Amino acid sequence: MKIVTIPCLQDNFAYLLICKKTKEAAVVDPSEQAPVRKAVEQEGVKLTTILNTHHHWDHVGGNKELKALYPELTIYGHDSDRGRIPEQTEFLKNGDGVRFGEQSGSFLHNPGHTSGAITYVFGKTAFTGDTLFAGGCGRLFEGTPAQMYDSLNFNIGRLPDETELYFGHEYTEANLRFALTVEPGNAEIQKKLAAVTALRSSGAFSTPTTIAVERQTNPFLRCYSAEIHTTLKSKDPNHDLSEKNVFRTLRELKNHF
Ligand SMILES: [Zn+2]
């Protein structure tokens, strides 16, 4: 499978997934029609499928126009997003698979950012939408901190270390700057921030990341970190250091960063 990153809107990423055998393609989270269509034409592939990670407008904004251009499109989303994802044709429930061309994948239901948020998994590649970002995670619009903690740490976090994670927004620099405020001594975050800053100033993107890198640099997967605990204790000596409570405080701090 070949993956083409398609920058959309201000800082969104759509991804074109190409089955090399059949030249059929799926697009993850088409925010808008035009850049997706351009990529499809440039790659000379047949777009058969849309994979929506959640219902937010900046992830489904191209659905209607793409469906008009390619009437046979199959459009996947979570079952609980019925009525919220335009033109949805497939309503994923536990155990369901995802197919296009000769590629077959699965999905993880990871509520928190929204109640119907999912991650698509094809082998050692995953598309996390707005649940996991490099160095951070999405805001909690429809879920509790405990749900998001589980989604990140026990759901996406169970994927093998080498899994490549393709995320929904180019937020990496700001995320890592926040990460350093709570874990200033983490050399891996310092190194990654320097690398991403250089990458961005050359016009390149920071997607994808890997599970291994996120375990080292993403504070929302590091709620056990002694240095993060020290930071939180310095703000509130009575802070409850259970991981879910650490997660809740980190998310609140990030909301105001
Ligand atoms: Zn979103």
From TrEMBL:
GO terms for molecular function: hydroxyacylglutathione hydrolase activity; metal ion binding. Residues 11-169 form the Metallo-beta-lactamase domain. InterPro entries: Clx_II_MBL, HAGH_C, Hydroxyacylglutathione_Hdrlase, Metallo-B-lactamas, RibonucZ/Hydroxyglut_hydro. One of its GO terms (biological process) is methylglyoxal catabolic process to D-lactate via S-lactoyl-glutathione. Its cofactor is Zn(2+). Keywords: Hydrolase, Metal-binding, Zinc. The keyword Magnesium does not apply. The keyword Metal-binding applies. CDD domains: hydroxyacylglutathione_hydrolase_MBL-fold (cd07723). Belongs to the metallo-beta-lactamase superfamily. Glyoxalase II family. This is Metallo-beta-lactamase domain-containing protein. It comes from marine metagenome.
